[in-house]
Amino acid sequence: MREEEIRDIIFDILLEIAPEADLKTLPHHGDLRKTLDIDSFDFLNLMIGLNERLGVDIPESDYEKLNTLSNMLTYLSARLG
Amino acid sequence: MKKKTMAWETIKKISDHFRVQPNLSDYDLTCAEFSWENIRKELDGLPDGKGLNIAHEAVDRHANGPLRGHLALRWLGENDTVLDFTYGDLQEQSNRFANVLQNLGVKKGERVSVLTGRLPQLYIAALGTWKTLGVFCPLFAAFGPEPIYQRLQRGDVKVLVTTERLYRKKVIDLKNRLPKLEHILFVDEVENAGEGLWSMTKMMAEASGEFTIPPTDPEDMAALHFTSGTTGMPKGAIHVHNAVLIHYMTGKYIMDFHRDDIFWCTADPGWVTGTSYGIISPLLHGITNIVDEADFNAERWYKILDKQKVSVWYTAPTAIRRLMRMSTEPRQLHDLTNLRLIHSVGEPLNPEAVIWGRDLLGLPIHDNWWQTETGGIMISNFPSMDIRPGSMGRPLPGIEAAIVSRVAEDKVQVVQERNVEGELALRPGWPSMFRGYLHDEERYRSCFTDGWYLTGDLARRDNDGYFWFVGRADDIIKTSGHMVGPFEVESGLMEHHAVAEAGVIGKPHPMIGQVVMAFVSLKPGFEPSDELRRELIGFAREKLGSAVAPKEIKFQGNLPKNKAGKIMRRLLKARELGLPEGDISTLEEER
């Protein structure tokens, strides 16, 4: 799967959680939770959403590896081949 | 209604198995011999009998003695920086902050708020505020502008400590509605900008590191903690310096602090737990207090427990349930051998979590119960006492708790029979009891009936005196361990031009207790759609912040109302959950 497709799916889920967010200007390397003011429950829902949409199993112990958009894309791309 | 309580096996405590002999080894004996006078004797008081001040007991008395060089606070930054503060450092820094406040003209009883993440400056500001006899009024950084406005306005806050980013995002637009807010202290600006905008760093550097705490009456106001109401906006619970007796006593008997302990309370000081136990209690005992800037992160948390050699840990059910999701064996990956005691608060801890602690961490988790109004832990599982998983434990020495039923407007009856549900009540008079709701004497009075403080929580007591939580008596929502008032959420939603009415409930959730859920009816000319639902969620998040905004919104033509026109949240909830609708005699016809 191409990185842009993964990004679109991330944005789709984020739009449900934080619909007010301006995702076009989302910094690639900024902490996602801080930038978007999403709490740890929102973040958990994002992880669950990614698992459902992409079929990638993301264990709780890996969550810190998905703290920024850039890290999230790297992590997911590696697992989607 | 009578219920059987015993379902899970009791976790036995065997006295010669303790790594450290607990400070409270015999519950009944300690209760029988207990007096607040004796607890007071374990504290110093201000020199020359000038009263009792939290900051003196927490910092100065250690800094002026052999613990001066002992590590008081270790701050772990998000980017892995570590900042250490000895008791001597905390004394000097809090003295500087106290002088800054005095230079700004802050007088006794005036409120100082902090709106930051968990930064060292937050802790220094709290301590410095107590030194000047100002009143510390913490705010949670995940609040949006509206909850912040409500608290700053209702609290008559004079000084706000914050960051440039939070100020710009959440406070600047409120400024002209807050005439009493005179000074903003930025923790991350290097120069003063004029017009009441100051650099805290610069002001601190220029202030003296010497400060003498003025005489402090134990009844002087020390903290203002806002808590959610069911019918109105949040109310500010007033706490006084004398509360320090509870913070000390619970540190001794429940947290079981011993000289070399390293303590980590994961709560944010924006909530009462993070102040009473994240700041005051460990410092009173002269031990090391860990503060982590980052929010929950399972891997990070295990690393902190391991690397920082945490010995006593106070956390929350939501976090424990997140750790339970992991398929790994924590003790195979992390060295948790320093950990000897785990406590939990925020909402009832489910029995599975207590047992999980015993099996996976090697330590059962001790649940306890208290609320903003009580100022400190009131009912708890003690280290030396057998745990009944699912129970909140037994009352503290010096605390009288009962199950009561309201029999008339001004009359309650103590339920003597065991295992019977009723309202949890406490006998007023403990040192950390709230002394009022600021500017709302009537609401304060209404909390007391017939010689009891009524907690609003429903519970039952078993044959051996263990208390078991049943539910809330009102509509207040408990989400991720935080209280959210439905009225505050409804008011926020009503400000959207498409919303005619809103009713907000706490929908049960296995991970975070309850999720804030809103039912919305629309004004004529608006149709329900996914787009509008998202717009409302975004609108509420911007206004209320992620800690308060609804996570779920459902459109409904008409919301059920009683004859007085009040939305019946109870009925909305029953219908959403498919539960019996109960007494609907007051329900007005639904059109």
Automatic annotation (TrEMBL), chain A:
Gene3D superfamilies from the UniProt entry: ACP-like (1.10.1200.10)
InterPro entries assigned: ACP-like_sf (IPR036736), PP-bd_ACP (IPR009081)
Annotated Carrier domain residues: 4-80
Superkingdom of the source species: Bacteria
Listed name of the protein: Acyl carrier protein
Organism classification: Bacteria, Pseudomonadati, Thermodesulfobacteriota, Desulfobacteria, Desulfobacterales
TrEMBL record, chain B:
Keyword Acetylation applies: yes
Annotated AMP-binding enzyme C-terminal domain residues: 488-566
Coiled-coil intervals, chain numbering: none
Transmembrane regions listed in the UniProt entry: none
Enzyme class, broadest EC rank: ligase
EC number in record: 6.2.1.1
GO cellular component, one term: cytosol
Single GO BP term: acetyl-CoA biosynthetic process
Keyword presence, ATP-binding: yes
AMP-dependent synthetase/ligase domain boundaries: 80-438
PROSITE patterns: AMP_BINDING
Keywords: Acetylation, ATP-binding, Ligase, Nucleotide-binding
A molecular function GO annotation: acetate-CoA ligase activity
PANTHER family xref list: ACETYL-COENZYME A SYNTHETASE, ACETYL-COENZYME A SYNTHETASE 1
Protein name: acetate--CoA ligase
Organism: uncultured Desulfobacterium sp
